[in-house]
Write a structure and sequence with these properties.
The protein is an alpha/beta fold and 764 residues long. Helices cover 46% and strands 16% of the residues. The protein contains 27 helices and 22 strands. The chain has an 8-stranded mixed sheet with strand order 7-14-13-9-10-11-12-8. An 8-stranded parallel sheet has the order 21-20-19-18-17-16-15-22. Strand 18, helix 20 and strand 19 form a beta-alpha-beta unit. The longest helix is centred in the N-terminal third of the chain and has 26 residues.
């Protein structure tokens, strides 16, 4: 049964349009399961009904015509209960409703299961039998598994506009794709799949109205590929066994115009573009090879895919070079970088003056890519996993970093609406900028220290440091991640000295190397089943005192003659880690002190602090206070560990929120205990850079907030319009709420009353 299921999914997945794909699916299910009927109904939430979209066994004339209310009949019952319904004699069931159009009078046995994606019922798939019987557990398990497999295909079709329940033409209709808000802001721009590695499995088929151009494009790509294959063959022909040589012969056969070419060009003339035509033909061939009993022939499916990916890349071309070398790019054009996963090197390579927005297929609100985007002040949407890169590439898009929406196929009406929203945002930002130099004092006279989180985009941040009271968090791991080896002590010294000496009167907090989890080093790979619970942060550097001592010595050498260095230890989970780290810091201090003495300069003892991000340390604050000079709260990881939610996993991203009442209560405990122990405490997580988060933290008693440089002016504007004494009354209510949604609703209402809502959503 598993083999049959794989074959159904594989064959159906090769059909680019949803309607014929679902029709083929019900045909194969009916045949495989030996049932008398199989049907699929899809939900239309706007009309509160399920529509029959594919059937074999019921009257085919009923497709698209039969609409069943959400609570009508057995199909409605399956959707309402969100679980399988297995009935041996359906007409006798009290919820049975007769729909004469489908002509199902002869059927008795019924089984239906919901098609669900991320808690949303997309439709119902049902099997029926003329005889009176109960479907077996195996049959039920098959249908449940099949429903789970096809859910993503339906979601993708909805996104692309291929889902057509009313037989209306949907070509060029605007489509909204919902992702996760990554960085606030609005932009209309052209998508650029920069640095994309295209392959057939990820390519989404698209139509083209210019067959002549597409045929020419395909033939040109084949010739380029033929030359590449010849070159590879020549390079290794004297050192390869006979079976490998046969692979190159297969490549040449497939590249022949009478082989793949004829069928690909036929697909082009059916209306598909060159890349999509290649995908449709090749995946059909590959599926046939994979079904063969001969293992050698099954392996040839891999060779076909490999060759075709080479052709695909030559059809698409080098998007990096095409984009960079295009001299005709309009000066006013804005570009939105789209990628499967945004990385620091990718952002460093992309021309900064062209970057207006970011879309990352993977990632969540607090993934590394989202933090990068906020540091750069670039609107971003993450976790857009329902859509393929080639759909977004070279398309005009509207990106809403507040809501996480991306709109495709803009029309005159919604483009005008979006431009109006962007204009409103620009007016608000100009007001914020106008007061950027004003002191950070609340309406009731409380002085707040605002610091900068640095290290993500050094050039930008260095220009903006003057705004804040110093650096609350310098991420030293970024220079490590941008290299192909560990940076030397001298290289680190030069980097740290530049920062410390540029602002000698301001405190500069440098976090020791914090890699692991979602921050890997390519030259120091760490493979773990649970990387966020594994070898990362202080755990790694204490196990490698050579790495730790080199870095700390570089920091101390850079601080000779200065007194503004603070050293921050990440991922602390017990007192013994602090004791051991301080021992190594003392060792490095004594070594560097001799160098300073030889130079006739003073080496000041640095303040040493710990990150409060592992929940265990919340219960040892009093003991920690005896060993350190300050605390820094990392709300990103603290939230992740308190809620047991991987902050990079879009499947559980809705569960991740620093506004969860438990997280807020933990933050309240931290500041209360820290104040009692007379230890300064800073919040350096992303929560501090959010208007709602900053207001809550101020009400709790935090007086030092560190954030990305781009958010600093915005938070200054917020606190200058906030009365902390008024917020403290609301805080008690917030801490007693049941859900994060309740907390967010209340704090947003407060910001509305202060006319600050434009900082948390589109529109002022």
């Amino acid at each position: 049964m598993l083999t049959a299921l794989k074959q159904i999914i594989q064959e159906v997945g090769q059909i680019p349009d949803l309607q014929p794909a679902l029709m083929r699916l019900v045909e194969m299910v009916k045949e495989t399961m030996s049932v008398d009927s199989c049907s699929i109904y899809l939900t239309d939430y706007a009309k509160q009904e399920l529509s029959l979209v594919a059937t074999v066994g019921l009257d085919p004339e009923a497709v698209g015509k039969v609409k069943i209310g959400f609570y009508e009949g057995l199909i409605g019952l399956v959707g309402d209960r969100e679980e399988p319904i297995n009935i041996e004699n359906a007409p006798q069931h009290p919820k049975f409703k007769h729909f004469p159009e489908v002509k199902e009078e002869k059927f008795h046995a019924f089984i239906g299961t919901p098609i669900i994606y991320q808690r949303k019922v997309l439709g119902v798939i049902a099997m029926q039998q003329e005889s009176i019987r109960r479907f077996s557990e195996d049959e039920e398990a098959f249908l449940i598994t099949l429903a789970a497999q096809i859910a993503l295909e339906i979601v993708t079709a909805e996104t692309l506009g291929n889902l057509n329940l009313d037989n209306k033409v949907l070509i060029n209709e605007s489509r909204v794709v919902n992702g996760i808000p990554g960085s606030p802001g609005l932009v209309i721009g052209r998508g650029v799949a920069y640095n994309a590695k295209h392959d057939l499995t990820q390519w989404v088929a698209k139509k083209s109205g210019d067959a002549k151009t597409q045929v020419s494009l395909y033939r040109s790509a084949v010739e380029i590929t033929r030359a590449e294959v010849d070159r590879l063959s020549d390079q290794i022909k004297d050192n390869i066994p006979e079976d490998v040589s046969a692979i190159f012969q297969l490549y040449h056969q497939l590249l022949d115009a009478n082989s793949l070419g004829r069928e690909v060009e036929a697909k082009i003339h059916e209306g598909w573009d060159a890349a999509s035509s290649l995908k449709l033909v090749v995946e059909s061939y590959a599926a046939k090879f994979e079904r063969m009993s001969d293992s050698y022939m099954r392996e040839r499916a891999i060779d076909i895919i490999d060759l075709s990916n080479r052709i695909l890349r030559n059809i698409v071309g080098d998007s990096n070079q095409q984009f960079l070398l295009n001299k005709d790019k309009p000066d006013h054009e804005k570009y939105i970088l789209v990628a499967r996963e945004i990385s620091a090197p990718m952002l460093a390579e992309f021309p900064r003056h062209l970057l207006a927005g970011i879309i990352s297929i993977k990632g969540s609100n607090n993934s590394h890519a989202a933090i990068l985007a906020r540091a750069m002040g670039v609107p971003a949407v993450m976790g857009l996993h329902k859509i393929s890169l080639n759909i977004l590439n070279d398309q005009e898009l509207f990106l809403d970093g507040y809501s996480g929406e991306v709109v495709l196929n803009l029309n005159e009406n919604n483009r005008a609406d979006f431009q109006a929203l962007i204009a409103q945002e620009e007016v608000l930002q100009s007001k914020v900028t106008a007061q950027a130099d004003k002191p950070s004092i609340t309406l009731d006279g409380k002085r707040i220290s605002l610091l900068v989180n640095a290290g993500l985009s050094a050039n930008v941040e260095m220009e903006q440091f003057l705004q804040g009271d110093g650096v609350g968090l310098y991420r030293t791991e970024i220079p490590f991640m941008m290299r192909e080896r560990f940076p030397s002590e001298q290289e680190q010294y030069a980097l740290y000295h530049r920062l410390l000496s540029a602002h000698p009167s301001k405190e500069i907090t440098m976090r020791t190397l914090d890699v692991g989890g979602d921050k890997p080093l390519s030259y120091f790979p760490i493979v773990e089943d649970n990387p966020f619970l594994g070898w990362r942060g202080i755990r790694l550097t204490l196990d490698h005192p050579d790495i730790f001592l080199v870095q700390v010595r570089a920091m101390l050498r850079a601080s000779i003659g200065l007194s503004n260095l603070h050293i921050l230890l990440p991922m602390i989970s017990c007192i013994s880690e602090v004791v051991e780290a301080k021992r190594l810091i003392k060792q490095a201090f004594l070594e560097v002190k001799e160098d300073a003495y030889d130079q006739g300069k003073l080496l000041s003892k640095p303040a040493v602090g710990v990150m409060l991000e592992v929940p265990a340390v919340i219960f040892q604050i009093e003991q920690l206070a005896q060993h350190v000079d300050f605390f820094s709260v990392g709300t990103n990881d603290l939230t992740q560990y308190l809620l047991a939610v991987d902050r990079n996993n879009p499947r559980v991203s809705s569960l991740y929120s620093s506004y969860h009442p438990s997280v807020l209560n933990a933050l309240q405990q931290i500041v209360t205990k820290s104040n009692k122990a007379n230890i300064p405490v800073t919040v350096c997580g992303e929560l501090a850079g959010e208007p709602a988060g900053a207001v809550i933290l101020l009400a709790m008693g935090y007086r030092k907030l560190s954030m990305n440089a781009h958010s600093l002016r915005k938070i200054n504007w917020v606190l200058r319009n906030t009365d902390i004494s008024h917020m403290q009354g609301l805080l008690n209510v917030l801490l007693r709420q049941d859900t994060q949604q309740d907390v967010i609703s209340l704090i947003n209402d407060y910001l509305e009353t202060k006319q600050l809502a434009g900082l948390i959503r589109a529109g002022s």
